[in-house]
Structures are given as C-alpha cells and as structure tokens.
Specification:
Layout: H1 2-9, H2 13-33, H3 36-51, H4 57-79
Length: 87
C-alpha cells in the first residue's frame, strides 16, 4: 500500500499507539509476575506469615503450590530463552 495506505490509516494511529502501549504494559507485568527473585521473596514472606500465625497450613499449602508452579514456569521459560543466565 505504501504512502496511500499510510495516509488512509492515519486516523487509526492513536489506536495503534494505544495497542502498543497496552502490549508493553502487559509484557512488563508478565515479566514481574514470573520473576524468580520476586517469587522467592513471596515464598519467604508466606513462610513468615505461617510462622506468625497469620495463615493456616491449608492456606500456606495452597499459596505455596501456586508460587512453586509460577517458579517452575519461570525457570522453564528462562532455560530456553538463551539469555545467558545459568540456573
């Protein structure tokens, strides 16, 4: 389409820009959600809450399973990414 296509699609530029911004925010949120250091910190906090009596064993087990699943997904994903880190 070239120049004519660009001119015709110009009114949609704000939408395309908004979609790009949303994709960037989602990518960053996913990166933080699956960050191994953040997951390990959450696990440590969870254990502290159990020891302090703030949560019971069932809640601890449920949350621990969720966090370990996230950690496994994170480590499995980083192993194939070729980012140069070793685990």
């Amino acid at each position: 389409m070239g120049l004519i296509g660009e001119v015709l699609l110009l009114p949609f530029a704000p939408v395309r820009g908004s979609l790009w911004a949303v994709r960037q925010v989602l990518a960053e949120a996913e990166r933080q959600y699956y960050d191994p250091a953040a997951i390990r910190a959450e696990l440590a906090l969870l254990e502290q809450r159990l020891e302090a009596g703030e949560i019971d064993d069932d809640e601890f087990d449920r949350r621990e399973d969720e966090l370990l699943d996230r950690l496994e997904i994170s480590l499995r994903g980083s192993a194939g990414s070729g980012n140069g880190t070793t685990g």
